[in-house]
Amino acid sequence: MDNEKNRSYKYGIIFKSDSITGNVRKAFFIVLLLTFTSLAFSQEFYVGGFAATNWKVETSSEILGFGANIEYRPNKSVLSFNSDISRFWVEKSPITTFPLSLKLIIGNKIRICPTFGGFIRTNENYGYSAGISVDYRVMKKVSLYIKTEYMRDYWKAENITWHKYNYVGGKKINDKCGYSIWINLGIKFSVLKTKN
Predict the structure, then answer these.
(1) I want to staple 153 with a disulfide (CB 3.0 to 4.6 A). Which of 29, 98, 107, 125 is the partner?
(2) Are 80 and 72 in contact (CB under 8 A)?
């Protein structure tokens, strides 16, 4: 069998090539479209960057990644829309994650914010996430934040054992899942803030 059929589960991730599929491209452009069309109605708009590492995964691993943060908050809303687009490497294989989440904003200078959303990855994994973010405004237009997040991955994998002993032929595809807990440390800059 080729490597594509012998995909294995490790670290909650399926290893395969990092080609961006049509669905990933569509999701990415939808996020961009929502971001830029909402600028006219935004109370706050942030862009920034972060470093990420896993805190706990079902199997032992050492993963380090980085990414870009986009956040916008509609006028007079306690919710903001976030996308922490990230890239990390597992056994020299790069994987990009395209998430979209809602953040409940509690506080002003120091914000404690529960988050919930979904994501897709370039290795065809998809799933949901939930976490909490603490934002601290250090200057008028600069904030530091730390975020911890539970991510539940789902994917399809070929059952190699079933295929080996099935003499009739065909494939058996199983749905698999795994989880990971991530910590992000980042900085973001206010690009647009209207007066209240």
Answers:
(1) 125
(2) yes
- DSSP of 127-152: EEEEEEEEEEEEETTEEEEEEEEEEE
Tokens of 72: 């916008």
Provide the token pair at 131. Answer: 């976490």
Count Cβ atoms within 10 A of the Cβ of residue 131 and give its class: 0-12 exposed, 13-18 middle, 19 or more buried.
Answer: buried
Domains and CATH numbers, the chain: 22-153+181-191 (2.40.160.20)
Give the pTM: 0.68
With contact defined as beta carbons under 8 Å apart, do 40 and 57 qualify?
no
**Per-residue pLDDT tens for 8-17?**
444 444 444 4
In degrees and rounded to multiples of 5, residue 39 shows phi and psi of: -55, -35
Integer Cα distance of 80 and 161 in angstroms? 46
- Contact assessment for residue 70 and residue 47, using Cβ atoms and an 8 Å cutoff: yes
Rounded distance, CA 194 to CA 50, Å? 25
